[in-house]
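#lab-general

N.A. 3:47 PM
ok so I finally got the sequence cleaned up, no stray characters, all 51 residues accounted for. can someone with queue access submit it? mine expired

B.Y. 3:52 PM
send it over

N.A. 3:53 PM
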Amino acid sequence: MRFYTELSSRTNSDTSGLGLYMSKKLVEWMNGKIHAELEDNWFILHIYLPR
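B.Y. 4:20 PM
back already:
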């Protein structure tokens, strides 16, 4: 899964942009899955973790 910023006008230049990447790596480290989607201008992040 590739994470990136679509519009530079929405990007805060003071941040590194690593938040979603780090979330993905953490969820994978916990043997889970992560999926992001954009639906009707809502950013939806699905995180699945084993019990």
